[in-house]
Specification:
Blueprint: H1 6-13, E1 22-28, H2 40-51, E2 55-61, H3 67-77, E3 81-85, H4 91-104, E4 109-112, H5 114-118, H6 120-124, E5 131-133, H7 138-150, E6 160-163, E7 169-171, H8 194-200, E8 204-207, E9 210-211, H9 222-228, E10 237-238, H10 241-254, E11 259-262, H11 271-284, E12 289-293, H12 300-309, E13 311-319, H13 323-329, H14 336-349, E14 352-359, H15 366-379, E15 383-388, H16 396-404, H17 429-450, E16 456-457, E17 466-469, E18 475-482, E19 485-492, E20 496-503, E21 508-516, E22 529-536, E23 541-549, E24 561-566, E25 574-582, E26 593-602
Parallel strand pairs: 1-2, 1-3, 3-4, 4-5, 8-11, 11-12, 12-13, 13-14, 14-15
Antiparallel strand pairs: 5-6, 6-7, 9-10, 16-26, 17-20, 18-19, 19-26, 20-25, 21-24, 21-26, 22-23, 22-25
Helix pairs in contact: 2-7, 3-4, 10-11, 11-12, 12-14, 15-17
């Protein structure tokens, strides 16, 4: 063992078990607006470490945690090595929690993930972090665990930067990327509460068939990672179709599988690979799946291939409706006419579409955002994800913002927040936020019109609603998931009345769901809410529905409650339907009431 690390290891080795290392991964998912999900990198690292006979556990932290609770839980697991995996948004928690643990325990702490990979000096300078891992972690972590267990020198492990007690830092080079992805064991799902994870995600499993992306989008981290590995091997690597099929077979044998999500950056990149995979998949499975595509990588034949294999949705980055911003700022070369053609092609073949848009990049104006809205109206996706640009360290747009003095240094915990953290000369942060929220409401209406329910869909006609509320800002469209069931809904914070003038057809049924958002089920949030529906004419309103739910105090109410009301006695005429939410006087704080997809149908 080299002298530099002998005192460090002697201190750490006193906490080790007799045979193999106990490694604890800590993954924070706090204030991210995401659902409990599978983190592929941790799963892959864990499977390789387990293959080396090391013991692995995971703390998945989805809520804020006190110092006392964190140290109590870590102490109970008695790890020999603690590993944080973090992106830029969650870096603040890795920073804080590592300090707490370093002050409480004599346990080495390593931090990996995209943030320490692209901002290594910042990460290694943290007092609570002894080591960082840059790039792929599987074999670096395995070598680290093996050497620590054996009491050997750890100072020259490729991919790792290591800090001595005196503060000296050894910056080791990267090892080549893992070229043969088939040589890796399947990612470990057992360290998760996987059954809970599946329930939260409607039994949809995340799978990756490849690593890397060859494109050079200026806002994305992939080009920066590719640059790190320059000269060491191809950044884009595919598992064999047979290897992916083998993993899917394992999943089907072990778990309930209702759908699959291939989270590869571009699933449609290699047409030869895709053809072979789809033929194998179609011969063995009938499980629907969705995957990421890119405008330049698809045509009618590719879409037909996907559809025949069982694909039900393709996710495509549009990013901006302004071609100059896309080309000059984002480094994306496709034209609007190509985007429109691809989305129309997907519609014709019967594939649902998901578009990604990025607002607030350098050069953005209110006019360019309107162009993005206009393009979205033309392509009419089934699902629309809008985000505000965040400058990630190491990316070209981060460097551009740094040069131009746009950076504020502010942090956000999520990719999905409605705030900008840069100051642009062409549009204010407040304007970006307003445009984003307006676009979000338009997007929900586009989605509702694309997936219209019944002969009258109240969400697709939301702009016709007459709203009576103490604050109309608390009445809007939303997308909410409860127990894996994600729905478009009307957010109607009580007291609220939503009135629609509707021409009923004969033998009408009103179908709808109600719920309170899961975000307010905690003990410190709101009380229950009364949902009511009345039907009115010129003289009076007649109650036709009333239901009180209180999920905070009644666990049976923690779900979507679905109803069907028979309106056939009202006949064929024009009426006023009122959707009402109310609470006891003074008890409406955090009563985030939701009307799920109300619509009218006729009896069959």
């Amino acid at each position: 063992m080299r002298g530099l690390h002998r005192p460090v290891l002697s201190k750490w080795l006193s906490t080790q078990v007799e045979v193999k290392m106990k490694v604890l991964f800590i993954y924070t998912d706090i204030f991210t607006n995401q659902y409990f999900h599978f983190q592929y990198g941790i799963g892959s690292n864990s499977s390789v470490l387990k293959q080396g006979d090391h013991s692995i556990s995971l703390l998945y932290l989805s809520q804020e945690i006190s110092r006392e609770e964190l140290t109590r839980r870590v102490k109970g697991l008695r790890p020999d090595l603690i590993g944080f995996s973090t992106g830029t948004h969650q870096w603040r928690f890795a920073r804080e929690f590592s300090r707490w643990l370093k002050e409480s325990f004599n346990i080495p702490i390593i931090c990996g993930g995209i943030h320490p990979t692209l901002a290594p000096e910042e990460a290694i300078s943290e007092p609570g972090i002894d080591m960082i891992c840059r790039g792929e972690g599987e074999y670096a972590l395995l070598e680290l665990a093996d050497k620590m267990e054996a009491g050997e020198d750890i100072s020259r492990i490729q991919n790792l930067w290591i800090k001595s007690p005196e503060g000296e830092i050894i910056r080791n080079p990267l090892r080549p990327p893992i070229l043969d992805l088939d040589s890796l064991p399947f990612p470990d799902r057992d360290i998760y509460d996987y059954e809970h994870l599946l329930k939260e995600n409607a039994y949809e499993h995340m799978v990756m068939a490849s690593r890397g992306c060859p494109y050079q989008c200026s806002y994305c981290c992939s080009p920066a990672v590719n640059q790190l590995y320059s000269g060491k091997g191809s950044p884009v690597r595919m598992r064999s179709p047979q290897n992916v099929i083998k993993e899917l077979t394992m999943l089907q044998n072990r778990f309930r599988v209702d759908s699959l999500f291939f989270t590869d950056e571009i699933f449609t990149l290699n047409h030869h690979w895709l053809s072979e995979f789809c033929q194998l998949y179609q011969s063995k499975f009938t499980i629907p799946f969705k995957a990421y595509a890119r405008v330049e990588t698809v045509n009618k034949e590719v879409f037909k291939l996907l559809k025949e294999a069982g694909c039900f949705m393709v996710l495509i980055g549009v990013e901006s409706g302004n071609e100059e911003i896309r080309r000059k700022i984002m480094n994306r070369k496709m034209k609007n006419e190509d985007i429109i053609r691809v989305f129309q092609m997907a519609d014709e073949i019967g594939l649902k579409t998901w578009s990604d848009n990025l607002l607030g990049v350098p050069g953005e104006t209110r006019e360019t955002i309107q162009e993005t809205i206009d393009l979205t109206l033309k392509i009419s996706p089934d699902h629309i994800q809008n985000s505000i640009f965040f400058p990630y360290p190491g990316t070209e747009l981060y460097k551009h913002c740094e040069r131009e003095g746009y950076l504020t240094g502010e942090e956000l915990t999520s990719y999905f927040e409605d705030s900008s953290v840069i100051n642009l000369p062409t549009i204010t942060r407040e304007e970006i936020q307003k445009c984003f929220n307006d676009f979000r409401q338009i997007s929900f209406q586009i989605q509702a019109r694309k997936d219209k329910l019944g002969y009258y869909d109240f969400i697709s006609n939301f702009k016709l609603t007459r709203v009576s509320s103490k604050d109309n800002a608390y009445v809007k469209l939303n997308l909410t998931r409860i127990l894996g069931d994600e729905r478009l809904c009307i957010f109607a914070h009580p007291p609220t009345r939503l009135q629609y003038k509707v021409r009923l057809k004969s033998d009408s049924l009103l179908r709808f769901g109600i719920a309170l958002s899961p975000l307010v089920w905690s003990p410190d949030k709101g009380e229950g809410t009364l949902f009511a529906i009345t039907v009115g004419n010129l003289l009076k309103d007649k109650p036709i529905f009333s239901k009180f739910i209180d999920p905070k105090n009644n666990p049976e109410d923690r779900k979507w409650h679905d109803f069907e009301l028979d309106l056939s006695n009202l006949g064929d005429k024009k009426v006023k339907l009122n959707f009402i939410t109310s609470t006891e006087e003074g008890k409406n704080s955090y009563c985030w009431a939701l009307w799920s997809r109300p619509h009218l149908v006729q009896k069959i």
